[in-house]
Amino acid sequence: MKKLVIIGNWKMNKNLHETQEFLSDFEKEYLNNKRKINKKIEFGIAAPFTNLFLLKDKIFKSVAQNFSNFDSGAYTGEVSASMLKDLGVSMVVLGHSERRQYFNETNEVVNKKTLQAIKENITPIVCVGETLEEYEAGQTKDVIAKQLKESLAGVEDFSKVIIAYEPVWAIGTGKTATAEIAQDICSFIRENTSKKVVIQYGGSVSPSNIEELMSQKDINGALVGGASLKADSFIKLLTLNK
Ligand code: PGA
């Protein structure tokens, strides 16, 4: 089996207590299912900042959902790369469509953060994806090409980034892109970036569809929201529902 990177994106869910509960459930489920989890699957959780310290030195990667493109200083409310590294964070989700939609995160901002992450040795997971209107108007590839060009400007080594293709119409809606659509766009992303880049698919990934999606040639992992919130469901993602 090829190497896969599966990351749970918790968004703004789970307080400290709920995170502790998840971790103890996850540990039990992991031990019970260990034989079924392929060693080639690398996995992690993108938790809210307040819970990241609980993920330090655990079996999964600790992932942030955002960070500042500045090093340090007078930026009230921001969290820097070095603060995250100190907590053991090794990856950061950037340009998620919810950040683009609700927090005005433009390609330009995503680009600054991507370069900052690479500089700081944190792997950026750069999200791209079209809206429903763009999809229906047949503009998917144009939209993705622009997002890639602008968000990844100046990136020289694509082994240092992960790209997540997340069609906005598939996020949290239960409407997954078919494996064919997902493969077609992920192959387009590879052609427009680099052969060696890790490309994830995201948008209503669940235990029932993960195996088919992950078997596509140009899909190297998944960014999973809803189905990553419960330990038993998260484990089923890692066993590819076996
Ligand atoms: P979903 O979210 O799996 O709940 O659709 C995916 C994401 O937003 O990364």
TrEMBL record:
List its EC numbers.
5.3.1.1
Give the reactions, separated by semicolons, that this protein catalyses.
D-glyceraldehyde 3-phosphate = dihydroxyacetone phosphate
Q: Where in the cell is it found?
A: Cytoplasm
**Biological or metabolic pathway of the protein:** Carbohydrate biosynthesis; gluconeogenesis; Carbohydrate degradation; glycolysis; D-glyceraldehyde 3-phosphate from glycerone phosphate: step 1/1
Give the SUPFAM superfamilies listed for this entry: Triosephosphate isomerase (TIM) (SSF51351)
* InterPro entries membership: Aldolase_TIM, TIM_sf, TrioseP_Isoase_bac/euk, Triosephosphate_isomerase, Triosephosphate_isomerase_AS
Q: Which residues form the signal peptide?
A: none
Per UniProt, the keywords (alphabetical) are:
Cytoplasm, Gluconeogenesis, Glycolysis, Isomerase
| Catalytic residues identified in the record | H96 (electrophile), E166 (proton acceptor)
Enzyme class (EC, first level) = isomerase
Query: Pfam families from the entry?
Result: TIM
Family affiliation: Belongs to the triosephosphate isomerase family.
Q: Which function does this protein serve?
A: Involved in the gluconeogenesis. Catalyzes stereospecifically the conversion of dihydroxyacetone phosphate (DHAP) to D-glyceraldehyde-3-phosphate (G3P).
Q: What is this protein called?
A: Triosephosphate isomerase
What species is given as this protein's source? Answer: Mesomycoplasma molare
Q: What is the lineage of its organism?
A: Bacteria, Bacillati, Mycoplasmatota, Mycoplasmoidales, Metamycoplasmataceae
Q: Which gene encodes it?
A: tpiA
